[in-house]
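Need a sequence for this fold. Nothing fancy.
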């Protein structure tokens, strides 16, 4: 079990695959995602990695937060989240992760907070049909109708679908396919919808119900590691050129 990443939802777009098929995607930005703390079995009773992402001014952080980030020797982070991992996938504090942590074609679970809709009635919140438009129904066309019973039991049962707060709850979108990964821009393109508004924070992790690809980096995709073969080939001649000039 690997760690996930903290990303920021940028919005929706579309791409075309090699067959020309239109694929709707959501753009997730990963920037400055670092390990802030590590939980171990010996000290905490479980193994986990605490990540932080986004910049936060030190004056806006609490005293406890400033001490927590100073201990890890990282800048204050706007968002902090913890991911359970297996002992062999623990990462050192201060390590920075990048989008190469996920590979195109794999499936991920995305956790986010849905957009708040405020106080809504039962027709919008629960898709009720409403009462009749005529034949005796007056000024209560969108009401829920009867909610209780008679003298026995004489109360409204728990979990009755009624009007109330809609949205602004944590939701998980499972089994979203990673279409593309842009390491230069720090973007993850996932197929489908992601909960939350533009600019909102989401947690991206390996799909629980899908098998992890064999080429997925372990323990994690760290920044500066696992460069493509083309980039390594381009850097090699550049490094050898000064040495050849010095010998001449």
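Here you go.
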């Amino acid at each position: 079990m690997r760690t996930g990443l903290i990303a920021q939802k940028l919005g929706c777009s579309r791409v075309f695959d090699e067959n020309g098929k239109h694929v709707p995607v959501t753009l997730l930005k990963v920037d400055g995602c670092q390990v802030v703390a590590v939980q171990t079995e010996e000290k905490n009773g479980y193994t986990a990695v605490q990540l932080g992402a986004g910049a936060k001014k030190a004056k806006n952080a609490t005293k406890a937060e400033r001490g927590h980030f100073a201990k890890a020797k990282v800048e204050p982070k706007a968002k902090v989240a913890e991911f359970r991992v297996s002992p062999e996938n623990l990462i050192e504090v201060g390590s920075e992760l990048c989008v190469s942590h996920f590979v195109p074609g794999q499936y991920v679970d995305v956790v986010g907070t849905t957009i708040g809709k405020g106080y809504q009635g039962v027709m919008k919140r629960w898709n009720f049909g409403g009462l009749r438009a005529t034949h005796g129904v007056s000024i209560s066309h969108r009401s829920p109708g009867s909610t209780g019973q008679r003298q026995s039991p004489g109360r409204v049962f728990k979990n009755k679908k009624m009007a109330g707060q809609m949205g602004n709850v944590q939701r998980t979108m499972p089994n979203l396919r990673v279409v593309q990964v842009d390491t230069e821009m720090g973007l993850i393109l996932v197929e489908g919808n992601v909960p939350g508004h533009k600019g909102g924070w989401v947690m991206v992790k390996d799909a629980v119900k899908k098998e992890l690809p064999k080429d997925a980096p372990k323990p994690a995709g760290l920044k500066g590691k696992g460069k493509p073969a083309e980039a390594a080939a381009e850097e090699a001649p550049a490094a050898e050129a000064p040495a050849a000039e010095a010998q001449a």
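For context: Residues 11 and 198 are 6 Å apart (CA to CA).
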